[in-house]
Predict the 3D structure of the following.
Amino acid sequence: MAAASRRGAPGSTRRKGEGSISSSSARATHVRTCGPGSAPGGWSLWHATTVTRDDVRVPTAQAYDRVVDEYVRRNTEVPADFARFRAEFAEAVPAGGRIADLGCGPGRDAARFRAAGLRAVGIDASGRMARCALDDGVPVARADIRLVPLRHETLDGIWSAASLLHVPRDEVPDTLRSWWRCLRPGGVLAVSTSMGDHEGWETWPYDPASQASTAGLRRWFVHHRPDALVALLGDAGFAVHLTRERESHRRWVQILASRPGTAPEAHSLARAPR
Ligand SMILES: C[S@@+](CC[C@H](N)C(=O)[O-])C[C@H]1O[C@@H](n2cnc3c(N)ncnc32)[C@H](O)[C@@H]1O
């Protein structure tokens, strides 16, 4: 996919410093559906799909565009419990498996999965975040995680760290179904997302010192109650194996789930600690 992105696809526009960018209007974004193919790296573009509701995605992605350097500075090191969750996911995917990091940001986790031998691609709406991941060796598409632009039943795993929290609540069921479709039977889903009830705009809270330069930035946040999210995952067809709560500057829930069915190789979800 990286090679295809660098070349540019028919109908796409490209700006300096950004990866492959689909044509977009205020209300509709045409994202390209990708899947394993003959392009270098084993990924190629194959057809287009349509996503609406850019009202929250665009300002949120623009906020991440503006703070990417600060984001990298503050998030390169991860807490021990997050590292454990990431390792549990990687162990649950078959060796050499194909995975997608949805809302990959600067590609910290996707790069780590690739170093561990997994064939990871990243997807992110922020051009500068996607560029950062690409520069770190992660094949990446600038696209929308609400309708994953990957061929159905091609992934052994989906990793979503702090990205579902930007999907409007009424779009979460369709988003999860999109993720389910991309997984092979037996494929593994790992979600880490913020806990709570609120949905709405939040202004950038990270660093008071940077507030002047990032004034006016806003991101759409959607917090979830663990039991409600587990129910939504069940409705989308997932079997949930593990839920765990943790706390940092927010409260988080980590969930390991899978698309029922037989994995190509036995995976370790059954052994995951609770
Ligand atoms: C909090 S960051 C998490 C980044 C990375 N997963 C991590 O753990 O550091 C959220 C990321 O999701 C991306 N994002 C938000 N909404 C998106 C959407 N609808 N489609 C694709 N990416 C989105 C943002 O651009 C941002 O890079």
